[in-house]
Fold this protein.
Amino acid sequence: VKKTKSRVGFLSNYMMKNHKFVRSNHPIFSYVAVGKRKSLLKKLGKSAFGKNSLHHQLLNKNCFFLNFNRPLKEGNTLMHHIEQKNRVNYRYEKTFTTKVFENNRYVGKNFKAFVRRNMKNNFSLGTFKKTYSKIKNRKYFYSKKIGNMEILIYPYNIFYYDLDNLLKKQKKIFIRAKA
């Protein structure tokens, strides 16, 4: 938990190197937090997207998404939580047999993620393009360009319920398959 570098980018590795941080225990979908509410990460369950996942815990906590130079049209992992919550048939919760340690202390094993049911089926590949086309003009997005970098801020709850409603209306909105 404390020693393995993040593979998803600069920011989490920078925080782990330069700040007092808390990192979640999930070996595949880990999160790093700093600040007064960072202990929330220690209360997460073993499911990356299910009950007691970060996405489940953040709901109704008056928080925001913050994208640094990552266009929203490229996606957001919240969609997997929404898929699991709504029990889509093209994904299932897989248990990964792994052991997690923090400071040489055993933390747990058998963490889970909601993964594609058929990896060979390209129609079940995730996409955010259909979703993005429906939400891109929503008034809750705030964007700021600084040089060649774009920062995007949007409220967690509104975005959460928007994605949830879109999936309920169009069951295949998060995958390449035709609606």
